[in-house]
Amino acid sequence: MFVNPPDDMKMHWPELQGKDVEEARKVIQEECPDVHIQVLGATSPATMDYRLDRVRIIKDENNKVMMANRGFPVCSIPLSNFNLLVCSTVTTVSICLILPSKT
Length: 103
What we know:
By secondary structure, this protein is mainly beta.
């Protein structure tokens, strides 16, 4: 079951895209002191649980923020940052492997 977040709860930090991870962590912690902040690489495995008490920062290989969001682990990484390698559907589950582009 999904719980809708309160209307005033910040869910995404697009303004942090391209910033240093530690700088982003400080901004999020100041705005939301009660959240757990988790930093992951773009291709790191992550659970798919919906947690409003967690903010995930997805970083690139230069330790720069690609995205930061609350709730689901993936929501809006620009697809231009990735190369699609494998995509297949097994019954009702889609499985895709994406890697950061080297451009």
